[in-house]
Amino acid sequence: MMTRDLTNLMAAAADIVRDAATIATEPPKDLTISTKAHRNDLVTAVDKAVEERIATRLAEIAPYPLLGEEGHDIDSFAGRVWVLDPIDGTLNYVETHRDYAISLALVEDGVPIAGLVYDVVASRMYEAIRGEGARVNGSLLPRLEPRHRDDIVVITDIKELDALPRLREIVTLSRGHRRYGSAALECIEVACGRAGAFVHLWVAPWDIAAAILVLTEVGARVSRIDGTPLDVRYKGSIVAAADPAHDEIIERLVRDAT
Ligand code: IPD
Ligand code: CA
Ligand code: CA
């Protein structure tokens, strides 16, 4: 597929995502909230309806297999695959009513080639096509300026701080930490330069496949917590940061053991 075709496809996908977002903004009276792995791992009727609407409409325009968090599975990542998180930040959707996103990536042989992260409440569509840069509502995002570890805001959670004493040190020496509750939007904060790093121990393909492309298209570095490459097909940790903060964080976390 030519880049122009991919641009047109992602423009159509963005329309589908915006349309599906109206399910979240005009929800049914009964959200039918249920829990999954633990009491704060939620799914609602809206998550399922958004996934269903997007899956149905994508099948009409580009019927690649779809991996969706709420019920769509794939046999393999060979060729092109859609990867969808219908609501990233469901706890926010239910409790704080902001900072939730629809995340949709087109992944080819395991590598994201196009991605959309839609911040529903802010009405901001973040888009990236590999090699073409990243945009927000159509405007090109600038490449990130160099940032150092001690001069950045670090997005991470208490789980990570408890598990990684050296991350606690990094945060103590930094400008401070934040946590928004949507891994996709937390990556976007780094891609937009508002935060300097995002550290999370357990993200799934649908959380980050689209946002990673936005990050790399603005020059951010992304890896696992031990500095090894992040393969979006597998669940695991993520460190996303501007340069050289990324190396400086990995250095402190894994190499600089004393
Ligand atoms: C969750 C959010 C959250 C992250 C969790 C994810 P969900 O996704 O991204 O910020 O800490 O690991 O599972 O369940 O709201 O789609
Ligand atoms: Ca998610
Ligand atoms: Ca989700």
Structure overview:
The protein is an alpha+beta fold and 258 residues long. Helices cover 36% and strands 26% of the residues. It has eight helices and 14 strands. It has a seven-stranded mixed sheet, sandwiched between helices. A five-stranded mixed sheet has the order 11-10-12-14-13, with helices on both faces. A two-stranded antiparallel ribbon has the order 1-2. Helix 1 runs antiparallel to helix 2 (45-61). The radius of gyration is 18 Å and the shape is globular. The termini are far apart. The chain binds D-MYO-inositol-1-phosphate and calcium ion (2 copies).
Q: Quick check: average pLDDT?
A: 96
Helix content: 25-40%
Structural class: alpha+beta
| Uncertain ranges | none
Enumerate the distinct ligands. D-MYO-inositol-1-phosphate, calcium ion
Q: What Rg do the Cα atoms give? A: 18 Å
Instruction: Count all strands and give the number.
Output: 14
Could you give the distance between the termini? 50 Å
Summed up, the helix count is 8
The strand line-up of the biggest sheet is 3-4-5-6-7-8-9
**Elements, N to C (H/E):** HEEHEEHEEEEEEHHEHEHEEH
What is the 3D shape? globular
User: What is the makeup of the main sheet?
Assistant: 7 strands, mixed
**Proportion of strand residues:** 25-35%
